Amino acid sequence: MGRKKGWENEGLFPMGLHELDPAALDELFRGRGFALLAGVDEAGRGPLAGPVVAAAVILPPDLRILGLTDSKALSPDERERLMGVVEKAAVSIGVGIVEAEEIDRTNILRATVRAMQEAVDGLAVAPDALLVDGPTGIGHKVPQFPLVKGDARSQSIAAASVVAKVTRDRIMVEHDRLYPQYGFSRHKGYATSEHMEALRRYGCCPLHRKTFRGVREWLGHGR
Q: Is residue 117 part of a domain?
């Protein structure tokens, strides 16, 4: 079951959702019968290398985690700290990971949806509803409510954003040990000048998304 991006205007909830703080927005959904509410978000759509990672997080009711917001607005140290807080507080956490090979075979949009579906399916407790970051749902049987900029509007989505980002960053640090010439531990696969210079010098490695602009130009190049 999915909901289109216009659900906010369907009269199911009062107007002014944008004015609610993230924890209050989640409580509004719980008050509509969705007690086990899972926030869903991803990290890694844009990089040239590595997987796309998604997380689904069910937080307990009446919880406010200070400082929790969109992971992109947080420093690495803040994300790591909040990751620990979320792990201790969460009712359940699910993670989905789709590697570069599948991203190239399908496309990044399908791979992202697949990672989100896997994250939801990985929850130890079945959610009553999903709050999904973005304009559309993920084609899951669980009722879902897409929220544009949801990682700044919902505490549950913000928690999923942090889990997905920290999980992916840790994966890229591990990959850096296998391919130290690319500097994955620093740029996490994004198209920094350091990364682009490494592609020019060394060509691609198995972690690179070979259908992406910025990578495909260097197929067969390098030492």
A: yes
